Amino acid sequence: MKKLLLLFAIFCVVSANAQNYFISFAGKGASGSVSTVNVENLMKNTTKTLNGNDVLHLTGTVGINSIEYTHSKELKIYPNPMTDHSTLEIYPPVAGNAVVSIYEISGKQIFNHQNFLENCKQEFRISGLNNGLYLIDIKGNTYHISGKLLSISNNYGNLLSVERISSNHAVVVKEILNEDKGSQSTDMEYSEGDRLKFTGISGNYSTVFVYIPNKDTTITFNFIACTDFEKNNYQVVEIGGQTWMAENLKSTKYNDGALIPLVSDSLEWLGLTTAGCCFFRNNEATYKNTYGALYNFYAANSGKLCPTDWHVPTNEQFTALITFLGGSSVAGGKMKESGYTHWYQPNTLGTNESGFTGLPAGWRGSTSKFQEMYVCGEFWTSTPNAGDTGGYSYYLDYWYKAVYGENVNKKVGFSIRCLKD
User: Inter-axis angle of helices 315-324 and 328-335, to 10 degrees?
Assistant: First the structure.
């Protein structure tokens, strides 16, 4: 008993400093449902994949700090301490789905189940807990309540069960933990201030959302169609009122179905005065899916390169993006994909906090030479220079946090990011 009281005291001291956030997901726009969510912690380089109706549980460092206690009159637990069983009286402030979870003092989750709770008293009976201190946690869409339960039972070998014993519905829900029921909640280690990249997927639609969680919330993905003539589907991201592709264009056809000449021969590329495209080092199999294609300015300025309802951004529109991200001196870092999966080190301040996910796809020079894969990402605008001898472009570099503008020969092959009309 003395040991349990000591654990109880330690729990009360440390739990106040721990974060314990719950993130749920919804869709709008072209789809109201979410099938899959990919989550990437951009600071820790860790990933999780969830079903769209799952709840992401962000916890602190594994251990006692992963438990948070919030006192609430909306939850009663009795008897407490528990010997054989205890009753949970839950008073949800609103009706709806809620996740009921139980955690050991170590922070290990031992029970998790989603239930529909009415806006009235709900009673659950807990039995089968070993000696120890536990956190009972109930998370609804708009509320989060929790409390502590101390077990002093002599339970050995019995299975933990949580059984609904009363509500407005004559429903009994029983969960036995040694059965594989499938989880409704996914834990992910999280430190305060970590930036997470969420990619919501619904059929052919895919939307990126970057966020630093600091509370329980629901992330709503705005699904927008972005499919080229070849049926390549692209992730999209909203930045400062603009909607961008979050991937490089890879199509070898215009949006009317006409072919964009795919030019591999060096002399032919050198002599082009009309539209052309290629893949880095003419290796479509290796580079297409990740890095997309490279296009000369004649293709970028054609007016039909992007998927229907999308276009190659003007110089002014690209400048608006950079301005929103704090100006050219810092915007590059915010636009670059984080880490070293595709960028060479040091990828200076490559935070990807915008969700643009800029990639170092290299480029093809006017002399046909392929250059700077993993070092640099160059992006055309659709705006020609004053004398119509070249076009405006912007590039990201592995060594710098800035984004740089250039006036470049029309024959050069750069990446394309399309902008929603």
Answer: 90
The residue out of 160, 186, 212 marking a domain boundary is 186
Same domain, 166 and 232: no
Which pTM does this prediction carry?
A: 0.70
Q: Give me the sheet containing 144-151, strands edge to edge.
A: 109-117, 96-104, 132-140, 144-151
CATH classification at residue 131? 2.60.40.3080
Q: What is the pLDDT of residues 4-41, one digit of tens each?
A: 444 444 344 434 344 578 899 999 999 999 999 999 99
370 with 360: CB under 8 angstroms? no
End-to-end CA distance of the chain, in Å? 68
Residue-range definition of the domain harbouring residue 115: 2-18+40-186
Residue 225 contacts residue 205 (beta carbons within 8 Å): yes
d(CA 272, CA 26): 47
Largest CA distance in the chain: 87
Residue holding tokens 């989060």?
A: 144
